[in-house]
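Same chain as my last thread, 366 residues:
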Amino acid sequence: MRTLLVVGLALAGLVTHAHAYPQYQVSRDATCTGCHVSPAGGGILNENGLAVSESTAQWSGGSSAFLHGAIPPPDWLQLGGDVRAAAGLVGIRELSAAAYPMQAEVYASAGGRGFTLNVAGGLRSPQEGGSATHVLWSREHYAMWQSGGPYGVFVRVGRFMPVYGLRLAEHAIYTERYGGLPLYGEAYGAAIEYVTREFEVHATGFIHDSIADAVEHGDGGALYAEARLGEHAAIGVEGKYSASSDLHSTYAGATGKLYLAGPELLLQAEAELVHDEVVAGGTANKLLGYLLATHPVADGWLVDLGVGHYTENTAVAGLYRDALDMNLHWFATSHNELLLTTRLELLDHGTGPVGGYALIQLHYRL
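reply #2:
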């Protein structure tokens, strides 16, 4: 019964908002800020990001700007947004039909001369036991100062997700869900970040949101540093500490990225160790890992193949799970994406229940 519950909870994590696609970082640009306003990636695209979205799509033409350029904002305001929904088959041993609302958000960045106010707001499902009042909310809202352009110093204060790890869009991935970046894991904090083409460092101190229905219940800090090795490779180190009234968690890990220009293959990997200390007594060590390979199969088409591992407690034999993922992206236009996402999950030496899903996701970028 416990393993059935574990698989069910993992599949429930599919209802999510999305971050950036790190598949483009070392294959198209050196950093997330090459395409995004935020130093963490995701959210509003800058001018270069809009151009990349247009060049990536199978069918070009029209405007890649917000609402296809129908409502041009003033120079001091940048707008964006995402709407996502998914439907398909989900189950344990036997698949059944399911449908999920995933994301409906609008982004705004207002200001000038290096100072901006950034807000992401919209709808979400109160799936963590919250009431209907949690349907309308602002996932992120922070003030930011940057020294100029896509590179340099960034200072952020407000509610946001600390920069940590690979920051993949699919939050059912073990290193995201259990490795320090859970869904709705945003917290209030302050970050100092330095981004160049050669390296980047992100340091964040945070406190949990005690008012909203937050997943992050602890206070602490996170650090992520990444160095580029030539034009198409990077290595990173990561650390995070979170302390709540009942649990203290310490995270440590490393990332790697390698783009092979010949076969147009991007490899990304992350490995983590998590040490949990229960205040009432007891400890547990967790091991997490993920390897993702990405290849453009045709104009506008991108395929991801991933394998993940999660050991829930190294002191208990057989208490682990493995996952095989396949995602097929079709970027029809700069605003429209169709995504097939699938997973096969095995538990306990391969003898436990098999969970899985096959979902079609519709994504419209405002």
